[in-house]
């Protein structure tokens, strides 16, 4: 009996050892597969970006085989649907740059002053209340902003300046600025809040006022974050679509008059992709050439933001 019991215990121990070995084997396989799975997940955005670049380049090359690249970037006339079509991109570039400049003239000062107030002058209770309310603006759909620009801002401007056209680049530029204010205010406020209090206390101890401390100590110390927020705001304005499509119209004018209708690159892409361009036609390929130009624009702005952020970064 004793020998039989000993055999049973030995068999049980062997089963336990084998079960533990199987568990370890499954665990080791899982440990090896998890990094591979995470790499695949992480590479999705990279592969998507590579696919976008390949598509834009391939279709743009087809366009530039029909339209000289110099004519595209220096031409001031854009008549894609004319019997004698012309594909100068300067009217679109002008509309995009002017609308972005107007937006930043609105968003820059208001966003920065909002950040100064929230970071340096508002109490914690006011900051916790006002900042979320300000950021609600960022959640409003851009098409709502577009109709707001067309049905409210433009009539308001025309009451003061009757010569302003019903569709113009001024009102969408102003409304884009309102839309960008939360981005600049929030990012700038974060940058200023990260400045150590010891720097503020040192300036105040030397006799500086709170205003002097803000503009001579805090803002210079947070300059990299503030400039980055401005550059990201410009990128947001360049890429905006619905506001300018609704409120600025589709006139492909090469002009610097902000009271007239202009078209931006994004609005042109929306117009062409709306069904007016047969596949394989020159106007169809022009969509990709404009999109590639827009892609390069925003890429340069993002690289500039990263460069500025690193160059002016202060470490405490």
UniProtKB/TrEMBL annotation:
Q: Which domain of life is it from?
A: Bacteria
User: Which GO MF terms does the UniProt record name?
Assistant: phosphate transmembrane transporter activity
**Signal sequence: where?**
none
Domain ABC transmembrane type-1, by residue range, is: 93-305
Query: What Pfam families does the annotation carry?
Result: BPD_transp_1
Gene Ontology terms: cellular component: plasma membrane
* TM helices/strands, residue ranges: 33-57, 89-112, 133-157, 169-187, 217-238, 283-305
Q: How does it sit in the membrane?
A: Multi-pass membrane protein
Q: Name one GO biological process term.
A: phosphate ion transport
Keywords (alphabetical) are: Cell membrane, Membrane, Phosphate transport, Transmembrane, Transmembrane helix, Transport
- Where found, per UniProt? Cell membrane; Membrane
**Methyltransferase is among the record's keywords:** no
**Task of the protein:** Part of the binding-protein-dependent transport system for phosphate; probably responsible for the translocation of the substrate across the membrane.
> What name has this protein been given in UniProt?
Phosphate transport system permease protein
Organism listed in the record: Oceanobacillus iheyensis (strain DSM 14371 / CIP 107618 / JCM 11309 / KCTC 3954 / HTE831)
């Amino acid at each position: 009996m004793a020998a039989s019991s000993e055999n049973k215990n030995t068999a049980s121990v062997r089963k336990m050892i084998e079960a533990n070995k199987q568990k370890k084997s499954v665990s080791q396989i899982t440990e090896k597969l998890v990094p591979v799975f995470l790499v695949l997940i992480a590479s999705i955005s990279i592969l998507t970006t590579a696919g976008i670049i390949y598509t834009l380049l391939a279709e743009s090359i087809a366009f530039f085989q029909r339209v000289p690249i110099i004519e595209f970037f220096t031409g001031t006339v854009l008549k894609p649907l004319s019997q004698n079509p012309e594909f100068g991109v300067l009217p679109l570039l002008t509309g995009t740059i002017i609308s972005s400049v107007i937006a930043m003239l609105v968003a820059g000062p208001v966003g920065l002053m909002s950040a100064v107030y929230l970071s340096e002058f508002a109490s914690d209770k006011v900051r916790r209340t006002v900042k979320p309310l300000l950021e609600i603006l960022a959640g409003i759909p851009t098409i709502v902003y577009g109709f707001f620009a067309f049905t409210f801002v433009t009539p308001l401007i025309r009451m003061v300046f009757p010569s302003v056209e019903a569709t113009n680049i001024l009102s969408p530029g102003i409304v884009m600025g309102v839309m960008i204010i939360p981005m600049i205010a929030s990012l700038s406020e974060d940058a200023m809040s990260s400045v150590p209090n010891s720097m503020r206390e040192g300036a105040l101890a030397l006799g500086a006022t709170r205003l002097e401390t803000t503009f001579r100590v805090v803002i210079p110390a947070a300059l990299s974050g503030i400039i980055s927020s401005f550059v990201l705001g410009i990128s947001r304005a360049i890429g905006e679509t619905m506001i300018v499509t609704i409120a600025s119209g589709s006139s492909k004018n090469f002009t610097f008059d902000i009271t007239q209708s202009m078209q931006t690159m994004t609005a042109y892409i929306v117009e062409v992709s709306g069904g007016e361009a047969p596949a394989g036609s020159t106007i169809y390929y022009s969509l990709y050439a404009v999109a590639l130009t827009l892609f390069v624009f925003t890429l340069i702005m993002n690289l500039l933001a990263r460069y500025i952020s690193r160059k002016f970064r202060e470490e405490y």
